[in-house]
TrEMBL record:
This is Kinase. GO terms for biological process: inositol phosphate biosynthetic process; macroautophagy; negative regulation of transcription by RNA polymerase II; positive regulation of transcription by RNA polymerase II; protein stabilization; regulation of arginine metabolic process. GO terms for molecular function: 1-phosphatidylinositol-3-kinase activity; inositol-1,3,4,5,6-pentakisphosphate kinase activity; inositol-1,3,4,5-tetrakisphosphate 6-kinase activity; inositol-1,4,5,6-tetrakisphosphate 3-kinase activity; inositol-1,4,5-trisphosphate 3-kinase activity; inositol-1,4,5-trisphosphate 6-kinase activity; protein-macromolecule adaptor activity. Keywords: Kinase, Transferase. It is an enzyme of class 2 (transferase). Its EC number is 2.7.-.-. GO terms for cellular component: cytoplasm; nucleus. It comes from Wickerhamomyces anomalus (strain ATCC 58044 / CBS 1984 / NCYC 433 / NRRL Y-366-8). Belongs to the inositol phosphokinase (IPK) family. It holds the Pfam family IPK. InterPro entries: IPK (IPR005522), IPK_sf (IPR038286).
Length: 335
């Protein structure tokens, strides 16, 4: 697919996500089910807004990447627009690629847009990692993964972590074999590292994530408390929706550039405000009015096996995972 480059940063997941040259848009091979879920979430959010239920942090859409639309390779005319589609999406040029003709592509605002040196962690939620459509062989494999990792014991598992730092932290409690360095100054903790974590060491892993950086102790404290607050709000949101999300993840991102923290006076907003398309009708406005990228963010991602399930109650499978992540962060907050 011409006009795209490989995504600059990724903590976990399959190969294949792309970005436009400006790293503004995130484009990945998707499924009709995932696209339908994003579309339904937008419809629900529109209904909530019409009813006056638009308090930031009270809705599921507040914790998801901005859905821009979909693309089909080789057929530029088949751009499927949403209410949030922007000029950036219309400018994309997809060249024909026969093997991709049947593959829909999901287009989101790049969650890493605006970060200079992001440190990221991908946390898969739930102990049940498959849905009713999963082939039996894959189902058995996923059940084994759950049984032998913190997916089974804690209803969440670290799938990958990428930290901007040139020094390796003290890893005497961990499996060092699955930690590597990149040429651009990152430490990469792969999925096998995450699978080796125990209910005890996973808390130590969060400590590494939030403290092995170039930030001051004050900035680290702000960071940790903001993620704890986001998780509390997200937990409450999950209690208001009847849905099932299998193999969904929470993505944590924070800025590991102390200069950006200082430029923003350590003011880390809970929710991202610099959305694409927000100022499409304000071309004459000064650039000074543009909102800066946040210093940290948290997103719920990966909805290939997600759907709304009216009448079936809340998703205890992922709620338990969020509870346990809150417990882990609570220990760090109170240290």
């Amino acid at each position: 697919m011409d006009g795209f480059t490989r995504l600059r940063h990724q903590a976990a997941g399959h190969e294949g996500p792309l970005a436009d040259e400006a790293q503004t848009l995130f484009v990945k091979p998707s499924t009709r089910q995932e696209i339908e879920f994003y579309t339904q979430v937008q419809r629900v959010a529109a209904e909530e807004e019409s009813q006056g239920k638009d308090v930031e942090g009270d809705r599921l859409i507040d914790f998801m990447p901005v859905f821009m639309g979909t693309l089909e390779a080789g057929i530029t005319s088949k751009v499927e627009e949403t209410t949030q589609v922007s000029e950036e999406l219309r400018k994309l040029d997809l060249e024909s690629n026969k093997k991709d003709d049947e593959q829909p592509y999901l287009v989101l605002q790049n969650a890493l847009k605006g970060f200079n040196n992001p440190s990221i962690i991908d946390i898969k939620l739930g102990s049940i990692l498959h849905d009713e459509f999963t082939p039996q062989e894959k189902k058995a494999r996923l059940q084994k993964v759950s049984e032998t990792t913190t997916s089974g014991s804690l209803n969440y598992r670290v799938c990958g972590m990428k930290l901007y730092h040139d020094q390796t932290p003290d890893l005497f409690k961990f499996d060092k074999e699955h930690v590597s360095k990149t040429d651009d100054g990152y430490l990469v903790f792969d999925k096998w590292f995450g699978r080796s974590l125990t209910p005890t060491t996973v808390v130590d892993n969060f400590k590494i994530y939030f403290q092995h950086n170039k930030l001051s102790s004050i900035q680290q404290r702000i960071l940790l408390e903001n993620f704890y607050t986001r998780l509390q709000l997200f937990y409450n949101v999950l209690l208001n929706y009847e849905l099932r999300i299998r193999s969904g993840s929470l993505l944590f991102i924070y800025e590991n550039d102390p200069q950006r923290w200082e430029e923003l006076n350590n003011e880390d907003q809970l929710f991202r405000q610099d959305f694409l398309g927000d100022d499409d009708d304000d071309d004459d406005d000064d650039d000074d009015n543009e909102q800066p990228a946040p210093l940290s963010a948290m997103y719920l991602i990966d909805f290939a096996h997600a759907k709304f399930t009216p009448g079936k109650g809340v998703d205890e499978n992922i709620i338990k995972g969020v509870e346990n992540i809150l417990d882990a962060l609570d220990r760090l907050v109170n240290e």
